[in-house]
Protein backbone atom coordinates (compact mmCIF):
# COMPACT_ATOMS: atom_id res chain seq x y z
CA UNK A 1 0.00 0.00 0.00
CA UNK A 2 1.35 3.44 -0.90
CA UNK A 3 0.05 6.95 -0.39
CA UNK A 4 -0.50 8.78 -3.67
CA UNK A 5 -1.75 12.23 -4.68
CA UNK A 6 -3.72 13.42 -7.72
CA UNK A 7 -2.19 12.03 -10.95
CA UNK A 8 -3.08 15.17 -12.88
CA UNK A 9 -2.32 18.03 -10.46
CA UNK A 10 0.80 16.40 -8.96
CA UNK A 11 0.69 18.44 -5.77
CA UNK A 12 1.89 17.26 -2.36
CA UNK A 13 -1.48 18.10 -0.89
CA UNK A 14 -3.50 15.22 0.56
CA UNK A 15 -7.09 15.56 -0.65
CA UNK A 16 -10.10 14.93 1.61
CA UNK A 17 -11.74 11.50 1.72
CA UNK A 18 -14.93 11.28 -0.35
CA UNK A 19 -15.83 7.64 0.19
CA UNK A 20 -14.68 4.70 2.34
CA UNK A 21 -15.41 1.11 1.40
CA UNK A 22 -13.95 -2.29 2.30
CA UNK A 23 -11.21 -0.59 4.34
CA UNK A 24 -10.08 1.64 1.44
CA UNK A 25 -10.43 5.41 1.03
CA UNK A 26 -11.32 7.32 -2.14
CA UNK A 27 -10.05 10.90 -2.12
CA UNK A 28 -11.35 13.65 -4.41
CA UNK A 29 -9.05 16.29 -5.90
CA UNK A 30 -10.67 19.69 -5.37
CA UNK A 31 -8.78 21.09 -8.36
CA UNK A 32 -9.55 18.64 -11.19
CA UNK A 33 -12.22 16.26 -9.83
CA UNK A 34 -10.21 13.02 -9.94
CA UNK A 35 -11.32 10.44 -7.33
CA UNK A 36 -8.45 8.14 -6.39
CA UNK A 37 -7.71 5.40 -3.85
CA UNK A 38 -5.01 6.38 -1.39
CA UNK A 39 -3.27 4.47 0.04
CA UNK A 40 -3.27 2.40 -3.14
CA UNK A 41 -2.73 -1.40 -3.20
CA UNK A 42 0.55 -2.47 -4.81
CA UNK A 43 0.65 -3.63 -8.44
CA UNK A 44 1.52 -7.15 -7.24
CA UNK A 45 -1.53 -7.21 -4.94
CA UNK A 46 -3.74 -6.13 -7.84
CA UNK A 47 -2.33 -8.70 -10.30
CA UNK A 48 -2.69 -11.38 -7.64
CA UNK A 49 -6.31 -10.41 -7.01
CA UNK A 50 -7.32 -10.80 -10.68
CA UNK A 51 -5.22 -13.86 -11.46
CA UNK A 52 -6.65 -15.71 -8.42
CA UNK A 53 -10.23 -14.70 -9.20
CA UNK A 54 -10.61 -12.53 -6.09
CA UNK A 55 -12.00 -9.47 -7.85
CA UNK A 56 -15.40 -8.07 -6.87
CA UNK A 57 -16.89 -9.59 -10.03
CA UNK A 58 -15.89 -13.28 -10.19
CA UNK A 59 -14.97 -15.02 -13.44
CA UNK A 60 -18.16 -17.06 -13.70
CA UNK A 61 -20.16 -13.82 -13.89
CA UNK A 62 -18.04 -12.73 -16.85
CA UNK A 63 -18.20 -16.04 -18.70
CA UNK A 64 -21.89 -16.80 -18.08
CA UNK A 65 -23.96 -16.56 -21.24
CA UNK A 66 -26.05 -13.41 -21.24
CA UNK A 67 -28.17 -11.88 -23.95
CA UNK A 68 -27.55 -8.47 -22.40
CA UNK A 69 -23.75 -8.83 -22.78
CA UNK A 70 -24.24 -9.36 -26.51
CA UNK A 71 -26.66 -6.40 -26.63
CA UNK A 72 -24.02 -4.24 -24.95
CA UNK A 73 -21.42 -5.43 -27.46
CA UNK A 74 -23.70 -4.65 -30.42
CA UNK A 75 -24.53 -1.22 -28.97
CA UNK A 76 -20.83 -0.36 -28.69
CA UNK A 77 -19.98 -1.82 -32.09
CA UNK A 78 -22.67 0.35 -33.72
CA UNK A 79 -20.83 3.42 -32.39
CA UNK A 80 -17.33 2.08 -33.14
CA UNK A 81 -18.19 1.16 -36.73
CA UNK A 82 -18.83 4.85 -37.51
CA UNK A 83 -15.06 5.27 -37.23
CA UNK A 84 -13.62 1.88 -38.21
CA UNK A 85 -15.19 -1.38 -39.33
CA UNK A 86 -12.37 -3.84 -39.99
CA UNK A 87 -8.79 -4.75 -39.14
CA UNK A 88 -7.13 -6.03 -35.97
CA UNK A 89 -9.07 -5.24 -32.79
CA UNK A 90 -7.69 -5.81 -29.27
CA UNK A 91 -9.85 -5.72 -26.15
CA UNK A 92 -8.06 -4.99 -22.86
CA UNK A 93 -9.87 -6.74 -20.00
CA UNK A 94 -11.83 -9.03 -22.29
CA UNK A 95 -14.07 -10.41 -19.49
CA UNK A 96 -16.04 -13.31 -20.96
CA UNK A 97 -15.06 -12.47 -24.56
CA UNK A 98 -18.55 -11.63 -25.77
CA UNK A 99 -17.63 -8.24 -27.21
CA UNK A 100 -14.83 -9.89 -29.20
CA UNK A 101 -17.19 -12.62 -30.40
CA UNK A 102 -19.67 -10.01 -31.67
CA UNK A 103 -16.89 -7.86 -33.19
CA UNK A 104 -15.59 -10.89 -35.09
CA UNK A 105 -19.04 -11.39 -36.63
CA UNK A 106 -18.91 -7.86 -38.08
CA UNK A 107 -15.53 -8.39 -39.74
CA UNK A 108 -12.86 -7.49 -37.18
CA UNK A 109 -9.91 -9.79 -36.54
CA UNK A 110 -10.07 -10.04 -32.76
CA UNK A 111 -7.58 -10.47 -29.89
CA UNK A 112 -8.13 -10.44 -26.12
CA UNK A 113 -6.03 -9.49 -23.12
CA UNK A 114 -7.29 -10.62 -19.73
CA UNK A 115 -5.59 -11.09 -16.34
CA UNK A 116 -8.01 -13.71 -15.03
CA UNK A 117 -6.58 -17.02 -16.24
CA UNK A 118 -9.92 -18.86 -16.05
CA UNK A 119 -11.47 -16.27 -18.35
CA UNK A 120 -8.48 -16.55 -20.71
CA UNK A 121 -9.08 -20.31 -20.96
CA UNK A 122 -12.80 -19.75 -21.61
CA UNK A 123 -12.15 -17.20 -24.37
CA UNK A 124 -9.56 -19.44 -26.02
CA UNK A 125 -11.39 -22.77 -25.70
CA UNK A 126 -15.09 -21.89 -25.85
CA UNK A 127 -14.95 -18.91 -28.22
CA UNK A 128 -11.79 -19.86 -30.16
CA UNK A 129 -10.43 -16.32 -29.83
CA UNK A 130 -6.72 -15.52 -29.34
CA UNK A 131 -6.33 -14.36 -25.75
CA UNK A 132 -3.29 -13.70 -23.54
CA UNK A 133 -2.94 -12.90 -19.85
CA UNK A 134 0.24 -10.78 -19.82
CA UNK A 135 0.90 -7.06 -19.97
CA UNK A 136 -0.14 -4.97 -22.98
CA UNK A 137 3.44 -3.96 -23.68
CA UNK A 138 4.46 -7.54 -24.47
CA UNK A 139 1.21 -9.07 -25.74
CA UNK A 140 0.85 -10.76 -29.15
CA UNK A 141 4.53 -10.41 -30.07
CA UNK A 142 4.36 -6.72 -30.81
CA UNK A 143 1.43 -6.89 -33.29
CA UNK A 144 0.08 -3.42 -34.06
CA UNK A 145 -3.69 -3.02 -33.87
CA UNK A 146 -6.18 -0.91 -35.84
CA UNK A 147 -8.47 -0.61 -32.81
CA UNK A 148 -7.97 -0.97 -29.07
CA UNK A 149 -11.12 -1.23 -26.96
CA UNK A 150 -11.86 -1.41 -23.26
CA UNK A 151 -15.10 -1.14 -21.30
CA UNK A 152 -15.20 -0.28 -17.59
CA UNK A 153 -11.50 -1.09 -17.35
CA UNK A 154 -9.91 2.38 -17.15
CA UNK A 155 -10.81 2.70 -13.45
CA UNK A 156 -8.77 -0.47 -12.80
CA UNK A 157 -5.52 0.76 -14.43
CA UNK A 158 -2.73 1.07 -11.86
CA UNK A 159 -1.01 3.81 -13.90
CA UNK A 160 -3.45 5.24 -16.49
CA UNK A 161 -0.85 7.50 -18.13
CA UNK A 162 1.60 4.64 -18.65
CA UNK A 163 -1.21 2.42 -19.92
CA UNK A 164 -2.43 5.00 -22.47
CA UNK A 165 1.13 5.55 -23.70
CA UNK A 166 1.41 1.79 -24.23
CA UNK A 167 -1.96 1.75 -26.03
CA UNK A 168 -0.62 4.52 -28.27
CA UNK A 169 2.48 2.44 -29.01
CA UNK A 170 0.44 -0.68 -29.83
CA UNK A 171 -1.90 1.13 -32.29
CA UNK A 172 -1.14 1.62 -35.95
CA UNK A 173 -0.84 5.22 -37.15
CA UNK A 174 -4.37 6.65 -37.20
CA UNK A 175 -5.61 3.72 -35.08
CA UNK A 176 -8.73 4.07 -32.95
CA UNK A 177 -9.01 3.92 -29.16
CA UNK A 178 -12.58 3.30 -27.98
CA UNK A 179 -13.45 3.04 -24.29
CA UNK A 180 -16.24 3.38 -21.75
CA UNK A 181 -15.77 4.50 -18.14
CA UNK A 182 -17.77 5.92 -15.23
CA UNK A 183 -17.11 9.44 -13.95
CA UNK A 184 -16.04 10.89 -10.60
CA UNK A 185 -17.02 14.54 -11.08
CA UNK A 186 -20.58 14.35 -9.81
CA UNK A 187 -22.04 16.29 -6.88
CA UNK A 188 -21.63 14.63 -3.48
CA UNK A 189 -25.39 14.58 -2.93
CA UNK A 190 -25.52 11.66 -5.42
CA UNK A 191 -23.16 9.44 -3.36
CA UNK A 192 -26.04 7.64 -1.58
CA UNK A 193 -27.27 6.41 -4.99
CA UNK A 194 -24.30 4.03 -5.18
CA UNK A 195 -24.61 0.58 -3.62
CA UNK A 196 -20.88 -0.06 -4.11
CA UNK A 197 -17.78 1.60 -5.56
CA UNK A 198 -16.17 -1.83 -5.94
CA UNK A 199 -13.11 -0.85 -3.90
CA UNK A 200 -10.29 -1.77 -4.18
CA UNK A 201 -10.84 -3.06 -7.75
CA UNK A 202 -11.56 0.49 -8.91
CA UNK A 203 -8.56 2.74 -8.35
CA UNK A 204 -9.61 5.94 -10.16
CA UNK A 205 -12.80 7.71 -11.24
CA UNK A 206 -12.14 10.48 -13.76
CA UNK A 207 -13.72 13.86 -14.48
CA UNK A 208 -14.46 14.95 -18.05
CA UNK A 209 -11.49 17.30 -17.78
CA UNK A 210 -9.25 14.40 -16.63
CA UNK A 211 -10.25 12.26 -19.63
CA UNK A 212 -9.58 15.04 -22.12
CA UNK A 213 -6.20 15.71 -20.47
CA UNK A 214 -5.31 12.02 -20.38
CA UNK A 215 -5.95 11.65 -24.11
CA UNK A 216 -4.21 14.90 -25.07
CA UNK A 217 -1.12 14.11 -22.98
CA UNK A 218 -0.73 10.58 -24.36
CA UNK A 219 -1.03 11.41 -28.07
CA UNK A 220 -4.71 11.07 -28.96
CA UNK A 221 -7.15 13.29 -30.83
CA UNK A 222 -10.65 13.10 -29.34
CA UNK A 223 -13.27 12.20 -31.97
CA UNK A 224 -16.37 11.63 -29.84
CA UNK A 225 -17.43 12.07 -26.20
CA UNK A 226 -20.84 10.57 -25.38
CA UNK A 227 -22.61 10.62 -22.02
CA UNK A 228 -25.40 8.66 -20.33
CA UNK A 229 -26.82 9.26 -16.85
CA UNK A 230 -26.23 6.30 -14.50
CA UNK A 231 -28.82 7.43 -11.94
CA UNK A 232 -31.71 5.20 -13.07
CA UNK A 233 -29.48 2.11 -13.10
CA UNK A 234 -27.87 2.97 -9.74
CA UNK A 235 -31.22 3.58 -8.05
CA UNK A 236 -32.70 0.34 -9.43
CA UNK A 237 -29.60 -1.64 -8.40
CA UNK A 238 -29.64 -0.28 -4.88
CA UNK A 239 -33.36 -1.01 -4.48
CA UNK A 240 -32.75 -4.58 -5.68
CA UNK A 241 -29.84 -5.09 -3.24
CA UNK A 242 -31.94 -3.79 -0.35
CA UNK A 243 -34.63 -6.32 -1.16
CA UNK A 244 -32.33 -9.30 -1.60
CA UNK A 245 -29.08 -8.89 0.34
CA UNK A 246 -27.81 -8.25 3.84
CA UNK A 247 -25.29 -5.39 4.13
CA UNK A 248 -21.58 -6.29 4.42
CA UNK A 249 -19.90 -5.60 7.75
CA UNK A 250 -16.28 -4.59 8.28
CA UNK A 251 -13.42 -4.24 5.85
CA UNK A 252 -11.89 -6.71 3.47
CA UNK A 253 -8.28 -7.68 3.00
CA UNK A 254 -7.01 -8.45 -0.50
CA UNK A 255 -4.99 -11.38 0.82
CA UNK A 256 -7.98 -13.13 2.40
CA UNK A 257 -10.80 -12.30 -0.01
CA UNK A 258 -12.17 -15.36 -1.75
CA UNK A 259 -14.56 -15.66 -4.68
CA UNK A 260 -17.01 -18.53 -5.14
CA UNK A 261 -15.46 -20.57 -7.92
CA UNK A 262 -17.66 -22.33 -10.46
CA UNK A 263 -15.83 -23.85 -13.46
CA UNK A 264 -16.24 -21.38 -16.33
CA UNK A 265 -17.37 -24.02 -18.84
CA UNK A 266 -19.99 -25.32 -16.40
CA UNK A 267 -21.19 -21.82 -15.62
CA UNK A 268 -21.64 -20.95 -19.29
CA UNK A 269 -23.72 -24.03 -20.03
CA UNK A 270 -25.75 -24.48 -16.89
CA UNK A 271 -29.35 -23.18 -17.21
CA UNK A 272 -31.12 -22.23 -13.98
CA UNK A 273 -33.94 -19.96 -12.80
CA UNK A 274 -31.27 -17.81 -11.13
CA UNK A 275 -29.48 -17.29 -14.44
CA UNK A 276 -32.72 -16.37 -16.21
CA UNK A 277 -33.50 -13.80 -13.50
CA UNK A 278 -29.92 -12.49 -13.71
CA UNK A 279 -30.18 -12.12 -17.48
CA UNK A 280 -33.47 -10.21 -17.07
CA UNK A 281 -31.83 -7.90 -14.52
CA UNK A 282 -28.81 -7.38 -16.82
CA UNK A 283 -31.17 -6.52 -19.64
CA UNK A 284 -33.03 -4.04 -17.42
CA UNK A 285 -29.69 -2.48 -16.44
CA UNK A 286 -28.76 -2.13 -20.10
CA UNK A 287 -32.04 -0.41 -20.95
CA UNK A 288 -31.85 1.91 -17.91
CA UNK A 289 -28.24 2.84 -18.73
CA UNK A 290 -28.33 3.48 -22.46
CA UNK A 291 -31.98 4.35 -23.17
CA UNK A 292 -33.43 5.96 -20.01
CA UNK A 293 -29.98 7.35 -19.12
CA UNK A 294 -29.73 9.01 -22.53
CA UNK A 295 -32.79 11.16 -21.85
CA UNK A 296 -31.85 12.46 -18.37
CA UNK A 297 -29.62 15.42 -17.40
CA UNK A 298 -25.91 14.53 -17.16
CA UNK A 299 -24.26 17.68 -15.82
CA UNK A 300 -22.54 16.97 -12.45
CA UNK A 301 -24.42 13.66 -12.13
CA UNK A 302 -23.11 10.07 -12.04
CA UNK A 303 -22.56 9.17 -15.69
CA UNK A 304 -20.97 6.64 -17.95
CA UNK A 305 -18.93 8.01 -20.85
CA UNK A 306 -17.92 6.53 -24.19
CA UNK A 307 -14.90 8.19 -25.80
CA UNK A 308 -13.53 7.57 -29.28
CA UNK A 309 -10.04 8.88 -30.05
CA UNK A 310 -7.51 8.60 -32.86
CA UNK A 311 -3.78 8.05 -32.43
CA UNK A 312 -1.82 11.07 -33.61
CA UNK A 313 1.90 11.09 -34.29
CA UNK A 314 4.61 13.52 -35.43
CA UNK A 315 4.87 16.90 -33.70
CA UNK A 316 2.29 15.86 -31.12
CA UNK A 317 4.23 12.72 -30.18
CA UNK A 318 3.41 11.66 -26.61
CA UNK A 319 7.11 11.11 -25.89
CA UNK A 320 7.36 14.84 -25.08
CA UNK A 321 4.58 14.47 -22.54
CA UNK A 322 5.73 11.21 -21.03
CA UNK A 323 4.42 11.09 -17.48
CA UNK A 324 4.77 8.56 -14.71
CA UNK A 325 3.41 8.49 -11.20
ZN1 LIG B 1 -6.24 16.96 -9.51
How would you sum up this structure, described in words?
Helix 3 runs parallel beside helix 10. The protein has a single domain (43-246, 259-321), classed as Vaccinia Virus protein VP39 (Rossmann fold, 3-Layer(aba) Sandwich), CATH 3.40.50.150. The longest helix is centred in the last third of the chain and has 23 residues, at 273-295. The chain starts with 16 loop residues before the first strand and ends in a 14-residue tail after the last strand. It is of the alpha/beta class. The chain is built from ten helices and eleven strands. Mean pLDDT is 86; it is low at 249-268 and 316-325. Helix 5 (117-125) links the parallel strand 5 (108-113) and strand 6. The chain is globular, with a radius of gyration of 19 Å. The strands form two sheets. The chain has a seven-stranded mixed β-sheet, with helices on both faces. Bound molecules: zinc ion.
Structure keywords:
325 residues; alpha/beta; Rossmann fold; 7-stranded mixed sheet; globular; disordered C terminus; binds zinc ion
Per the CATH scheme, the topology name is Rossmann fold
Q: Give the biggest sheet.
A: 7 strands, mixed
**Radius of gyration, in angstroms, nearest whole number:** 19 Å
Low-confidence stretches: 249-268, 316-325
Instruction: Give the tally of structural domains.
Output: 1
Average pLDDT? 86
Instruction: Tell me the structural class.
Output: alpha/beta
Q: What is the H level of CATH, i.e. the homologous superfamily?
A: Vaccinia Virus protein VP39
The spatial strand order of the largest sheet comes to 6-5-4-7-8-11-10
Give the SSE order as H and E letters.
Answer: EEEHHHEHEHEEHEEHEHHHE
Percent of residues in helices: 25-40%
- CATH structural architecture: 3-Layer(aba) Sandwich
The gross shape turns out to be globular
Distance between the termini: 14 Å
* Number of beta strands: 11
Q: How much of the polypeptide forms β-strand, as a percent range?
A: 15-25%
Amino acid sequence: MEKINCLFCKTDQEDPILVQENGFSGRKCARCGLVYISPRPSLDDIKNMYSHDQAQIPSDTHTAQSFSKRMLARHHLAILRRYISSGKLLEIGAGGGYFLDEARKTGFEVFGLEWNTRQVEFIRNSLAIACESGMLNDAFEGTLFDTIYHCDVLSHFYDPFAEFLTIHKRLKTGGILFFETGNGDFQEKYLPAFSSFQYPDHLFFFSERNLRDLLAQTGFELLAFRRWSLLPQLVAKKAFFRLTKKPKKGGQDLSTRKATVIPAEQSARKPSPGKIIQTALDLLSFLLRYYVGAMLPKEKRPCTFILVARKVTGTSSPAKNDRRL
